[in-house]
TrEMBL record:
Membrane topology: Multi-pass membrane protein
Signal peptide from the UniProt entry: none
Residues that span the membrane, as ranges: 7-29, 78-97
Pfam assignment, any one: ABC2_membrane
Annotated source species: Mycobacterium pseudoshottsii
Coiled-coil portions: none
Protein name (database record): ABC-2 type transporter transmembrane domain-containing protein
Keyword NAD part of the UniProt annotation: no
InterPro entries: ABC2_TM (IPR013525)
Amino acid sequence: MVRTVEVVGAAVFLITLPIISISGCFVPTQPMPHALRVIAEWNPLSSLALALRKLTIDEPMAPPSAQLPLHHPALSTLIYSIVLTALLAPIAIRAYIRRTSL
């Protein structure tokens, strides 16, 4: 088990930095090499960013060559949210119960 908040913060940073960097949030995915583009287009942040752009500034949808999550970004974001919550909530609850029942 992790002993300090600083260790958790460092671990979260090391996990989230690549996820944010390899997404379509800040740069378009089309000029990326094919393997990196596939990873970026399946990244949950890419579909979230595209869904928000579509809802707020009516940006055109993804090009036809894009992966499935970018063709339906709002639905993909909802599915990603449900799946990640279903996977991570039990782990967090179990850790909380173990930590508070000492």
